[in-house]
Specification:
Elements: H1 2-40, H2 52-58, H3 60-94, H4 100-121, H5 127-147, H6 150-164
Helix pairs in contact: 1-3, 1-4, 1-5, 2-3, 3-4, 4-5
Length: 165
């Protein structure tokens, strides 16, 4: 049953991060870009001393295109996180009956959910969004481990024996 709770908790963490992205919209994307440019400027090829405000003032139309693109990236990654969160939620709820197929689906969903969360967590995303991605990754991996522990296998055998008795 701990695997069920972990799968649901991983799904909840992913949904919280996605909600933060969807609610933040373009303002979140713009803030995120400004922080990234001001922090990483020289390491991404910008001249020393140039800031996000300087770039924005040079070409407001181009700046808006960049902000729109970043907002789109964040929304797509949030959408992927929601998809895998729903996968984990449904598989976790199915695993309450000790179904092996549900444990397999939790394992596959947790592994596939690493993709959007790794992209989110390691792409200079906003701190709150990165934190929920790290939490979703960690809890998802805990769910995978818990699914296949010997105690869980004993629980599955006991449930099957009770059904057929």
């Amino acid at each position: 049953m701990a695997a069920v709770g972990a799968a649901i908790a991983a799904a909840a963490a992913a949904v919280v991060g996605a909600v933060l992205v969807f609610a933040g919209g373009k303002e979140l994307a713009e803030t995120n870009l400004k922080e990234a440019i001001d922090t990483l400027g020289p390491s991404i090829g910008l001249p020393d001393g140039i800031t996000a405000a300087d770039i924005e003032s040079l070409s407001p139309a181009m700046w808006q295109l960049v902000v729109d693109e970043r907002a789109q990236q964040l929304v797509v990654r949030g959408g992927m996180a929601v998809f895998f969160a729903l996968w984990l939620l449904i598989a976790g709820l199915c695993a309450r009956n000790a179904a092996t197929a549900a444990r397999v689906l939790i394992t596959i969903g947790a592994v596939f959910s690493l993709l959007p969360h790794v992209l989110i967590a390691f792409d200079h995303s906003p701190v709150a969004v990165s934190a929920t991605s790290f939490a979703a990754m960690a809890i998802g991996l805990v769910a995978v481990v818990l699914c296949w522990l010997p105690a869980n296998n004993a629980y599955v055998r006991a449930r099957k024996a009770a059904r057929f008795a």
